[in-house]
Design a protein that fits this description.
Helix content of chain A: over 70%
Number of helices of chain A: 9
Shape of chain A: extended
Structural class of chain A: mainly alpha
Strand content of chain A: under 5%
Radius of gyration of chain B: 25 Å
Oligomer: heterodimer
Number of strands of chain A: 0
Distance between the termini of chain A: 32 Å
Chain lengths: 193, 194
């Protein structure tokens, strides 16, 4: 039986929960799924493929509301594995992107070549931090140089933003791995019954 | 090729379509494909997965092993870099009585540091003899290097601790999965009782 003291402590702790409280803050985080999609459930086709891996049956079709405990635990595990795979790839891709953006270049020509190669490979990005830095330092028009500096200060590819994104992606991956462990244990218990 | 996703097929435990689900390790520039593949084959041989799910977990274990190797290499490079710096400064101070400063280093000090970093050779022996003559041990230089590296080492040490925990847990899961799976007898013959 929970004591009154524990209940009061739980209530106080809940008020200190993280997350936005203002309308503007809530509006901003509502767009999180649009940036990387990792807070939404994994796509059903990926879950199906993982279900087939977990059950070792290439033709298996997961049933979302199955009453069979084995099928339910296998589906839950498949969802967890799909989420771990997604978040792990996102974290690795971001690390690779960070490394390619933040690695020092030996001279200005190498830096310019890197920016050009990235534009060719990924398309021109008006928010690319390196491109904006080049505009800010090389533009003869002080208005353009000033504008480039302002936009660069909020670029999602500036070093501080890249590091913050990395922390977020790592947190998503950790949460996914925790969920996976729980799902795996439950599935294994069913297997052993 | 740096950064190229590993796409080599695994010939154990399931169809290629299923195995394509597994997130493969992405090598950073400067990392060697061949070294990763050697590690991968060695671990696959040790783990011997026989089903797609076992293979999926085995690939994740391999990825964690590689990340551990990566962070160890980064940490060791940091320490070596500081070791070289401390060795150069030690030589400068003892030989000239002062540091040139402003990041300038004499060629003699640079050669001394390089010789000390090499495992063997006539120059290495000479460098160690010079240390002995000046009552300095290599361990003192290593200790100073660690001290200088200090805060920069923390992220790698934390990452290594986290990777070790994840690897241990995943290995436990793999062993439990192996123990649970009934092994199909491929050459089983069903005998008609009649």
């Amino acid at each position: 039986m929970t004591t009154q003291r524990q209940a009061d402590a739980n209530r106080a702790n809940a008020k200190a929960s993280t997350g936005p409280r203002t309308v503007a803050g809530k509006r901003q985080v509502a767009q999180n799924a649009r940036r990387h999609g990792l807070t939404t459930p994994p796509p059903w086709d990926q879950v199906t493929r993982w279900y087939r891996v977990v059950t070792n049956d290439p033709q298996a079709q997961p049933v979302p509301h199955s009453m069979d405990p084995y099928e339910r635990s296998a589906l839950r595990l498949a969802e967890a594995e799909a989420q771990v795979a997604r978040t792990t790839m996102a974290e690795r891709d971001h690390l690779f992107d960070m490394q390619s953006r933040l690695a020092p270049t030996k001279d200005a020509a190498s830096f310019l070549n890197r920016v050009i190669d990235r534009s060719v490979a990924q398309g021109f990005d008006v928010e690319d931090y390196d491109t904006l830095q080049l505009m800010a330092t090389n533009s003869e028009d002080p208005f353009i140089a000033g504008a480039a500096r302002i936009v660069a200060s909020t670029s999602p590819t500036r070093p501080a933003a890249l590091r913050r994104t990395m922390k977020t992606l790592t947190r998503y991956r950790r949460d996914a791995e925790s969920a996976r462990r729980r799902a795996f244990k439950a599935w294994l218990n069913i297997q052993n019954e | 090729m740096p950064g190229k996703k590993q796409t080599k097929a695994i010939s154990t435990g399931g169809s290629q379509e299923l195995l394509d689900l597994i997130p493969r390790m992405r090598l950073l520039p400067g990392e060697d494909d061949a070294t990763f593949e050697d590690l991968r084959q060695a671990l696959l041989g040790e783990l011997a997965p026989s089903t797609p799910y076992e293979t999926a977990i085995a690939e994740n274990i391999i990825a964690l092993e590689w990340e551990t190797h990566r962070h160890r290499a980064l940490r060791d490079s940091l320490i070596r870099s500081h070791f070289r710096e401390v060795a150069r400064e030690t030589r400068e101070n003892r030989t000239n009585g002062f540091n040139l400063g402003l990041g300038l280093v004499s060629q003699e000090a640079m050669d001394f540091a390089d010789a000390l970093m090499s495992p063997t050779g006539a120059d290495t022996t000479e460098a160690r003899n010079w240390l002995a003559q000046n009552n300095i041990t290599v361990e003192e230089i290593v200790a100073l290097a660690y001290q200088k590296a200090g805060p920069a080492l923390d992220p790698h040490e934390r990452k290594l601790a986290e990777l070790e925990t994840r690897r241990r847990r995943l290995r436990q899961d793999y062993d439990q999965l192996k123990a649970t799976r009934a092994r199909p007898v491929t050459d089983a013959e069903i005998v008609d009782p009649q």
